[in-house]
Amino acid sequence: MTRPSMYAIVAAALLAIVPSLLNAQQRGGPTDHPAVTVKGQTYTPASILARNMGSNEDQEAQFPPHKIVGNVYYVGTKTLSAFLIVTPQGHILMDSTYERNVPTIKKSVEQLGFKFADIKILLGNHAHGDHQEGDAAVKQMTGATVMAMAEDIEALKAMMPGGKQHPIDKVLHDGDTISLGGTTLVAHLTAGHTRGATTYTAKVTEGSKTYDVVFFSSLRAGGAFTPAIAAEFNRTFSLVRSLPCDVPLGDHPAEYDMTAKYSRLVASGGNPFIDKAHCLDEADIQEAMYHAVVEEQKALSSTRSGK
Question: What is this structure's pTM?
Answer without folding.
Answer: 0.89
